[in-house]
DNA sequence: GAGTTTGAAACT
DNA sequence: CAGTTTCAAACTC
């Protein structure tokens, strides 16, 4: 791998921590490893069989280690066993159940644009316990051999990663043996029992252990995949099999061999930048975010990602791995740090809508309040939310949609109205998981935005993650939800473009995703549109010395972390939908797709363009300038700055006095549930949207409140007096607060506000704000921090 | 396509 | 944290 001095420098910085496998060993994850219970081989075999086909003569060799074997199993366990077993539990402790969903979807990513995995996922079969039993026996015996069978010699990088995480192959063999001796099977049946126990509040250990184990196993799987990527055909086959791609080769199925080969190629090529353009975008995003999720989560805090980070040289370890780790860590944290009892069953109702799902997410957050809250709150929340959302779907329908992990399926279902169609809801959640896998940055943001867009623009058709690139909205390269009218406008605009611009636009359209032309930023700064959007650069980018590539995953994540440390909102979408708020009169039936309902999160600062050119981010996003803008001579045709705009988005562009009222109301509302939640989880249900926007003191001032800091609002609510502060309409932008972590830590209950809050906080993007009006309140908070 | 303008991001 | 510099997109020629 070519590496520039810059990359080497970065890698060197990390290497020290990377080499410290102790860091891993000391982590909750490693602790978990030390207490592994025997694998659920029966289940594994069953699901594997499902994956490979019921007529497979022999158990798949992919089960090279107890940790490695369950890629498929995990998926099914998530969807079926766990869901079933935990369906009851879910109502009480959805957090634990939820997040194990991730591995399976990561897997989907792995192999999948072509849907080879989808195929598999789409048709689960019953477990063959007999075969499974044989497999268990066989596997135990063959592990030492199998451990090596799938890997070509010399595969250093990822092997190292795997070794760090799980020990050398030899060690794995030993571990397997040890586990076999323990003979403490935790079958799905047992898991079910564990779930029941959990439900009954008797025991959480079994379930937690099981879940964590599954996650861990998935990690190993991911690791193997990574190895395969580096080790050539032989290893690739094994891993393809693991990834579900071998499915076609060994068993006559509905999928063609061509597809299988294609899938294989994708696996060998790292799953990235393969497949369709839209898929590419999705994949880029996924990789990116998954890794991030891991880094921010597995370590338990945002400050220590490097402690577990492997050298950039080994960065090819799939983000999947990291993501899975993240999940594992998350679960572990949940288990270790949260008391499921903390979550009121009353609030953990089975989600019947995205909002419900988000509520669950919120609860999940609550349950982990004792755990460190990542500085990148958006990521954290999003990740959890998405997981929760997905799980919610699964719980709500373990049936078909649980397997709608493919973008194609998203498209297929995207046209459904999410507000009323449970299937759509599920799709949305799934999409969020799939496309996102990642949370607070825009990668996550994008992904989440994807889901959210679908959710909030339910009447619109679910589009591929990058479809909205056509919209050419800087803030949402992959945002969806563009209404038909918007599309029409785009077409018209395109027709009016100069040939050059048309070419560029055409390039966008043909490519489906953003491209950049960075020359000096290495695509590791927000200057880079791709980087800022949370996606990797693609081949079609014209950038120079680009590091925003999967092979520099660690570097990218590192930089992202640094940037987010400076500005937690750096990777959040710049444009938010004001319609997605909880204003008193807001209803889901309202039109959520119109540009006028959106606004630029932080506002523009145009001086010469008069907000009439694409220099202006508001204009570019086709949103009106708001009080958050500090533009001069604004002539934004989508809205005008200082004066309050009483348009259809007037909920946001309210009268200054009203704004202040809204801020206070939001604060009061948030505060109430936040504090009351400690004693009554039901209070969390209080939708902020319903907060009266009337309780406030008027003042002729505008309130420039960054919108997506919902968590902060909660955290700051303890001191309402600080929150509200008048400011001039065009006051200078306020940088994100520097004390977020501190604040966050301060108010563990803050995240327990109502469902609505969750809904908006979860996405690290737009919807982070409790409600449209609360944005202002948030901003005030930030100002106050300053 | 080269050069200029612009404003966000980054830096000091 | 205000001022400056850097950067890349947008724009003009």
UniProtKB/TrEMBL annotation:
Region (Disordered) residue spans: 1-24, 678-786
Low complexity biased stretches: 678-699
Record keywords: Nucleus
Main location group: nucleus
Classification via Pfam families: TCR
Compartments, record wording: Nucleus
Alphabetized InterPro entries for the sequence: CRC, Tesmin/TSO1-like_CXC, TSO1-like
MF annotations from Gene Ontology: DNA-binding transcription factor activity
SMART domains, alphabetized: CXC
A GO cellular-component term linked to this record: nucleus
Statement: the UniProt record of this protein carries the keyword Nucleus: yes
Polar residues: compositionally biased ranges: 716-740
Segments of skewed composition (Acidic residues): 706-715
Family: Belongs to the lin-54 family.
Alphabetical list of PANTHER family matching this protein: CRC DOMAIN-CONTAINING PROTEIN, PROTEIN TESMIN/TSO1-LIKE CXC 2
Protein name: CRC domain-containing protein
